[in-house]
Amino acid sequence: MKKNGTILLWLGGLALGIIAAKLGIKYAFAFSILLITPIALIMKPERGLNLLAAYAVIDFVFRTRGGILSGIWDELLFILMIGVFFVHLLINGKGFPVRLTELDVPIFVFFGISIFLLLVNSPELHVAVEGIRVILQYILWYFVAINIIKDRSVVRKLLLVLIVIAVLLSLHGIYQYIIGVEIPTTWYDSKHETSMRTRVFSIIGSPNILGSLLVLALPITLSFVLNERGWLRKLVYLGSMGVMALCLVFTFSRGAWLAFALSAVIYTLLKDKRLIIPMVLGAAVLLIAVPQIGDRIAYMISPEYMLSSARGGRIARWSAAIEAVKTSPIFGVGLGRYGGAVAMRYIPGSFYADNFYLKTMAEMGIIGLTGFLYLLYRGCIESLRTIRGLKDPKLYNMAVGIFTGLIGILAQNAVENVFEVPMMATYFWLLVAVILSLRYIEAEPQCEVK
Question: In a 3-state reduction of DSSP, which class is residue 137?
Fold first, then answer.
């Protein structure tokens, strides 16, 4: 075995040398990545999930340097992971075991509804195909992850990668606040919010989406604080939380703030109700220390904001979405035709609905929204059942942290199209799989075989 490995290493080096000599270092490097990645994933498929946890950074690299791969790298990774999964199983002689979960049926029901609507209500097929891809593609990561996560070390490494990414983005965001990075005037009301210097967005490009990522990462990091025994590591994770929280403040994303507040309340209810008092005190101190927070929230409930929003802001977009629903309440106006990125590309005069649930209802009607909400409801119920059934305190802390972060994302979707962002949709379904995998990790045997 060792001799064969040495021969392969020499042959690989020879091939890289020839490519470098004929085509250049750039192509040799690309070839080495294409060669090494499948081998590394076949040896340890969970490495693919770690890559997925680093989605924010990898996607930024591909968007800025990836050329033709910039928009398809995650699809290629998905296809590669599917292939690697089956190759890995064949190599190990385990046949084709499939982990069955209670979320499978709701997912297939929603997929069925979506395909039905594609077939019966697609004025422009290419728009509908793109619309259904945006909705369904990232849910498929759930099936990949639930079948690859086999032990707690995989979960821990995956979550650590996510925490590290969130900390790095937060540090960059804080740097942006310090230097007063320039932002579009449409990101705030310069007439009324005169105290606002800037809003941070790091490499994400949007303060609201950066905020949603931090809403997801903060309670997960808290679970690491609780799970660590050594004070040094506890302090490191506490410091990480401080950096993330500060960056969350500097996004000045009201939707993210409210989502985090809801997430924090649910965390205290699941973990320790006595935490509510220090949480309220901490919020009060924050309002005093950073008066811009109070100013921005106060402006949100002011008559001036309501009037401005009704003219051309969120309230106006929500009202328009409701009118769109009225035109076709049962089946919707068609996949990809309203309130999102696909509509912005193909339908003149389109705009973001700033409410993913209204967008879904406008495009897919009551039928589609019902299927989607049922899927989310079952995901929440099964997550809570997993949490209540866990006996291991460390796994319990992880599950509570992940669940409350996911609830924050669901809440923010009421004021933002968070699920339209591939990074956030991927993180969401990846972490749903992580929660449900914890029940198999704790129990023996670990998975049901089909």
Answer: helix
Cα–Cα distance measured from residue 316 to residue 14, given in angstroms and rounded to the nearest whole number: 63
**What is the value of pTM for the model shown?**
0.89
Q: Which pLDDT tens digit goes with each residue over 297-356? A: 888 888 888 888 888 889 999 999 999 999 999 999 999 999 999 999 999 988 899 999
Tokens of 35: 């060669």
Query: What pLDDT digit, counting tens, does each position of 153-181 carry?
Result: 999 999 999 999 999 999 999 999 999 99
Contacts of 105 (CB under 8 A, 6+ apart): none
Buried b (16+ CB within 10 A) or exposed e, 75-85: eebbebbeebb
Residue 348 included in any domain: yes
* pLDDT at residue number 5: 44
Which of the 8 DSSP states describes residue 139? G
- As for how many domains the chain has, the answer is 2
Host domain of residue 208: 104-315+330-442
Residue at 157 is within a domain: yes
The whole-angstrom separation of Cα 118 and Cα 110 is: 12
Asked whether residue 64 falls in the same domain as residue 115, the answer is no
**Hey, what amino acid is at 102?**
E
Same domain, 348 and 200: yes
